[in-house]
Design goal:
There is one protein chain. The protein has 10 helices and no strands. It is mainly α and 233 residues long. The longest helix is centred in the first third of the chain and has 38 residues, at 2-39. The chain is globular, with a radius of gyration of 25 Å.
């Protein structure tokens, strides 16, 4: 009976402690994102991040054993947010490649409107400041970035791409999209018709057309009437 009376207060205490841990961790991540994007990975330090978060360096290490692990946590959090945005993307009905357009544009728009998340992603690709990161962790982060475009792999398969083609196009889509985002971030594109978003949409249209054309050709070949043999010649 006594243990039953003590259980609810104990559970409440555990919940409060977990809330405090989550809050402190979020504050550390927010401070790290600000420091990384302001100073770059190479010039950033746990000491500076701790100062921004209002903690001691030792308190930071209680959550993250290294700057690289802290960066990885930030990037994975960013990728999780990308997943959520793509999951909410709704295609326009009546267009064969609407699903591909909706998902790919949701991915692109996220990075186009979240400059700090884009910078973190570009840090990963450049590898600058990530010396000391375990190869396994680096590989996991690169794979996680590719996975954000997995919904586009599924959309490409609905257009007729086989699994190998769809995954190859995912790599091209990733490279093309990030390339345009890099150019946009440098303010090299100014005219509306050459905006990064417009160029990305054009790329998606051409990509979809290739598979739609191939699909129509395949159907035509299957339904074509074979030539008749002239029995009287």
């Amino acid at each position: 009976m006594q243990s039953t009376n003590l259980k609810p207060p104990m559970e409440a205490k555990i919940r409060r402690q977990q809330t405090m841990v989550d809050t402190r961790r979020a504050m550390v991540l927010a401070a790290a994102k600000a420091v990384f994007t302001q100073l770059g990975l190479e010039r950033s330090s746990i000491r500076e991040i701790a100062k921004r978060a209002g903690y001691t360096p030792g308190a930071i290490y209680a959550y993250f054993p290294s700057k690289q692990e802290l960066f990885a946590a930030l990037l994975e959090e960013s990728m999780h947010r990308v997943d959520g945005v793509i999951a909410q993307a709704r295609p326009i009905k009546g267009r064969p490649h609407a699903l591909l357009q909706a998902r790919a544009q949701a991915w692109f728009s996220f990075f186009a409107t979240h400059s700090r998340d884009l910078e973190l992603t570009l840090f990963l690709l450049a590898g600058s400041g990530l010396q000391g990161m375990a190869p396994e962790l680096s590989q996991r982060l690169h794979a996680r970035l590719r996975q954000t475009l997995d919904p586009c792999v599924a959309a490409l398969q609905t257009l007729g791409a086989d699994p190998a083609q769809a995954h190859a196009e995912r790599e091209a889509l990733l490279a093309h999209g990030l390339g345009l985002l890099m150019v946009q971030s440098s303010a090299s594109l100014t005219a509306p018709e050459t905006s990064a978003q417009a160029l990305f949409v054009q790329y998606l249209d051409r990509l979809a057309e290739r598979f739609e054309t191939a699909s129509v050709s395949a159907i035509t070949e299957k339904t074509a009437i074979p030539p008749q043999v002239d029995l009287f010649s």
